[in-house]
């Protein structure tokens, strides 16, 4: 059961709900009683995205231009700005995009989800294939409407020696979910999955990842940090599966969150499923408040309390932002964080 299937068929019974274990904190079936009508074609201008002029723009689920897939040939390198824009209020749309990075090729994918209207339902599915020795750095930045339901799912299959580095920056929506599923072959392949969520008001963001190690000698490194305030809700679900025979796997996961008000909520479920013996795997999870001693120290130097809290919060999530390799994307991510905290 998926949002994609529900939009395609118009059947709300296809929506995932709280009885589905992976969706129990992001219940769509209990939220959506009737799906909105299909989004119309949108011919208007949508301006530039957060990363600048885009090579690929998808508006209301329709790709502008002739391409139906993003392909990087063997040995080539590309940087692509990919925008998903929802531009019609009270409507629903979905899209499926294929991404192929051939053997030895590299792609920097600067991906944004932008709400230019209210109360839409949007779904995007990316199927991503990385060839042998290929490289993908994927930076995802969300700016959905507060009343929207927005789901993005990436299904990534790696070749031997491939490298995937991903950072998701989520600002939430009425319901927002960014899901990544990785088929990890081992054999020198490397995965880094990072995330930040900054939530206020009644926004909800869900970052869910599943990495399945299927062969020898794979590496996964994961770090997610979140900050919630007001009545916002953050969800982190990370699962690393080490299959039988995937010896020499090195997999580490960390999730850390700050709750800045009494009515905010964080739900976290880090998981390791290990069916091999010779592995190095660990996970950590912390949820707490700002360090009052550090806050006192900064305020003693004449910094107003609101500014001091923002500085500490920015430093907290800055560890994730600094891991972004692409310089312009790192700057855009830092600006997004500063804007969210300033608000």
Automatic annotation (TrEMBL):
Residues 88-316 form the SUF system FeS cluster assembly SufBD core domain. InterPro entries: Fe-S_cluster_assembly_SufBD (IPR055346), SUF_FeS_clus_asmbl_SufBD_core (IPR000825), SUF_FeS_clus_asmbl_SufBD_sf (IPR037284), SUF_FeS_clus_asmbl_SufD (IPR011542). This is Fe-S cluster assembly protein SufD. It comes from Phenylobacterium terrae. The gene is sufD.
